[in-house]
Structures are given as structure tokens and as C-alpha cells.
User: What shape does this take?
Amino acid sequence: MKAIIQRVTKASVAVGGDQINSVGRGLCVLLGISSEDTEKDAEYMVSKILNLRLFEDESGRAWSKSVMDKNFEVLCVSQFTLHCVLKGNKPDFHLAMPAELAQPFYDSILERMRSVYKPELIKDGKFGALMQVHIQNDGPVTIEFASPSGPTDPKMLAKQEKQQLRRDKCCPKGPQEPSREGGARRHQQASTTSSSAEGDEESEKAF
Amino acid sequence: MKAIIQRVTKASVAVGGDQINSVGRGLCVLLGISSEDTEKDAEYMVSKILNLRLFEDESGRAWSKSVMDKNFEVLCVSQFTLHCVLKGNKPDFHLAMPAELAQPFYDSILERMRSVYKPELIKDGKFGALMQVHIQNDGPVTIEFASPSGPTDPKMLAKQEKQQLRRDKCCPKGPQEPSREGGARRHQQASTTSSSAEGDEESEKAF
Assistant: This one.
């Protein structure tokens, strides 16, 4: 699952010239579901979207508060084109989950978001419709990320870790390429570790 | 280098309440430069942005024409936040190229875009300023991609290929994890192979 998260001053979505939804300050999320996504990906993504610290605190300090901290809104729009593979310069979208499966899954993600936060502050587009999405990107601030891929079951991860150790013994002088499993582990840690990184100078860059 | 490419009906950018640039139909590109990016990445990215087939042809066939084919415009805005690493829920941007290096590099990318296409059809934000970027995403259609990472020198790639063969001989039964070098090679091929994929049904999904 991939998300493009834009911090917005306001955003709205129109179908056939009629505005169907709008938000004030908050986030506009373009959400792309792949064929391999599961509930785990949905859980991760909803948690990240709602807890990402993209807003200032009361003293003007950047990257301090989440959309939930600020009581801001979220406009979420399904976007299968994020699972694009280029064939030369022509986009191909066979990795995206087919619409008949993606629609109920997408609806369940919205429900999850509403249950974690406040239902009235989560707005939607119209799945499958040709939309005009008006986004006033504030900064701009745009974050793109993907949910962790691969198995996240702890027993499975322990097994993979042992396999990795055996491979390292077999090829002790081989270059240390990050494995897919290692990546999944790191992702999982990142999603469950609460941050204590405060006042990071690297984060205070200008736009 | 990362880019978020949104197909737009129109887009504009304002600084301090004053609109400084605007485009009609075309693309809004949010461009993130990392510390490791080189001219090769810039070359790849400019080529992809200008040649990506995100527009219909005259008969209404989707994914057929590029922004250049249609004589449409491009609004390009620098966006360091795309090189975000999450520390828990706090974004960290130490992978982004520092502003004093990124600004001349970014300007050179714009110049390259103007020289490949038409200078008057490439618009810009204001590097380093706090901007409001108004994006009317048409579809929506949003593509995210990164330029190939790692060395792209043919001699270097041949050397790496030999090293990979030696590793495979050393560990013939090991799982086939994609290596960084392999990824770079595949990317490079994708960027230089002209597409002959026409009328792909997978590409005709609804929004």
C-alpha cells in the first residue's frame, strides 16, 4: 500500500462539476492499494497517516504535531495509479488491486481511520469516479511512503533471521546487501517504536 | 531523486499571498533531491517527466500522450520532504541534499527541462520559500517514482555483474534476493528501452 500525503490548507473533490466533499487544514491522502495488501498494511497505513507529525506546535516548532493532535481533517482519495510500472514511458497498473476487491478494502480502511480518529473529520472522494481533486498544498509538504511488505508474523521473522545467519556463514565475505526480510523488520520496528527524537536540527530545513 | 507527478487541469503557486506562477493543463511535479543525486539522475528524471504518457490521444484513448505531445505545461516545485525517514512518527530529512547545494542543482534541472521542451511551458515555484501550491489533480492521476540509484557507468556495472556471478557460484542454493546493483541495472534498462506496449488492457482501469 502506498500513500502520498500532502499537508493542506484546504482541499476538496468534485465529480462532474459538483463538489462532493471538502476539508480545511489537515491532510490530503492519495492511497494506492496493491494486489498483495492485507489488513496489516491497512493498520500500518492508518496509524502512520493519523500520527505523522507534520504540523507545528503552539510555539511554532515544526514537525511536532499530528493531524489528530491538531484536530484537523483528512481528505482521503483512492489512487490506483500509484502502483505504476513503466513500460518505457507507458504506465502499466497491473500491480494495483482490481477495483472489485479494492473498493470494499478501501472502504474498510476509511472505517478504520474513522474509528481511530473522529468520523466527522475523515472525508472521502468517490471510488472509481473521474474526479477533480483540488489540493492546496501548504509548504509544500509532501510525504510518500509504502506499508511494509512481506510477512510480519514474529515467528516467521525469527525463522528468516536464522536463515539469514546461515547464509552469512555460507558467504562470509559477500557484500552486505539489505535483504527483503531485513527491510520488513526495520519497517516494523519503525512503526512500533515511539520516537524520542526531539529538536532534530536536520528536520528544521526551510521549504 | 524522487518525483511526485500529478496530472492537472490547472495549478499555481503563491508566496505570501501573491501568485507567482501558474499553469493550465499539464503536470505539477514535486521534486525531491537527495544528497547522492548526480547529473545522471537529473537526466533520467527530466526524460521521464516529459515523456510519461499520462494523457489521452485525440480518440480518447488513455495513457497515450506525453505532456510534450499535448503541448501542455509543467509546474515544477522543489520538495525536500520527499526524502523523509520516519523516526517513529517524526519525519527526518537528513537524506535530502542541503539547500545550498540543492538550489543550483535544482535550477540546472529546470534548465535541462526547458532545453528539452519549450522554455515558456516550464514554470517554477520559489526555492526555499514557504509556498501555497494549488493543484487541481485531474482524475486523480498521480505517479511517484525515483531515479535509479547507484553507479550507472557501464564498466562498473559489468564488474558488478561478474561479482554477482561469483557470489551465485559461492551460494548456489541461497534465496535470490534482488541486489542493489541488479535494481540499478533494471532501472537503467527501463529508462533506455522505448516502449512498444500498446493497448494494454491493464492500463485502462477506471479512477
